[in-house]
Amino acid sequence: MTDALNALIAPHGGSLILNFADSDEQNVLREQAQSLPQVVIGSRQLADLELLANGAYSPLTGFMTREDYLGVVNDMHLSNGLPWSVPITLSVSAEQAATLTEGQRIALVDDAGTLHAVMTVHEIFSYDKQLEAQKVYRTTDEAHPGVRVLYQQGEILLGGPVRVVELQPQTFAVYRYTPTQSRNLFAERGWKRVVGFQTRNPVHRAHEYIQKCAMETVDGLYLHPLVGDTKSDDIPADVRMRCYEVLLENYYPADRAVLGVFPAAMRYAGPREAIFHAILRKNYGCSHFIVGRDHAGVGNYYGTYDAHYIFAEFDPQRLGITPLFFDHTFYCRQCEGMASAKTCPHGNDAHVTLSGTRVRQMLQSGVIPPPEFSRPEVAKVLIEAMRQPAS
Ligand SMILES: [Zn+2]
What is the pTM assigned to this prediction? Predict the structure, then answer.
């Protein structure tokens, strides 16, 4: 088993950094936390704490200090030289920051007062939200969902290591593999080359095709849907999970695909988030990562292939994980199969393509889209979900 584990890609920075306190340490920290100043954190930071605890954020040990923060914002690298594209920060109001001092420990609690982590505050620093917006999101428009979150957060950042004592509620617990667990699952199956697929949408034929193209050249697929915070108009995670289950059950060999959930919050940072998603999947044990059109994009903020181009800005050795770029795909009646502009010479009239709006209309009126667009099992799950008020 050790050999099989060693055959997988190494985590980012060489080893998984787990910032989760064991039960003895938890007891000590819970006791000590009673006399520490409290900082209330929201769902974004609760998700960050889980990813810090389980090693998905390796090599990070906590929320970023100024040097790492500026390195990431300005040139997508940590101070140790490793690629990293999205700031992982903890903000507080200027009023609260004025009550804290560097070197002191604080208790990170949720809005119900539950202790989640103890943090050692190494640095208290101000930052430029406009700069972060422009660099990370490529826009300062507050209509961008990621920029809006940034503008609404506190004016001061706290940087320093955390010891996590309690995770956020563990939805989809049976699928909530830590990087250690996913690596074990891959090793048990004898996989060396594993392709990760990020999604926050149901998987239709186009994405199934992309995954299967990748699967032809690697040992296995890690279907890794994001279940953290998304926009309110994205399809709810529980509905998507049922779609993935029926799809895998009916159309994928059981020994070639693993379904797990990715407990990160969506940032909609497009190209920067594609890099971020790839690095995290490397920690989960994926050697390859699928990057489609407009990965992690929203609205018209990013060019269709910006999330492909950005990979050229990194040293492939330091990034470690290999991106697999895919174009828009569709069923072609003349090719009699799934294809893309790279493989099909026929015109649009031969292609089965439906806009997102059209698919939504069909599903809402109980109409199953053509089997060339969507597997009927998946369509049924979506139709069923749209009939009922949100569960
Ligand atoms: Zn064709």
Answer: 0.95
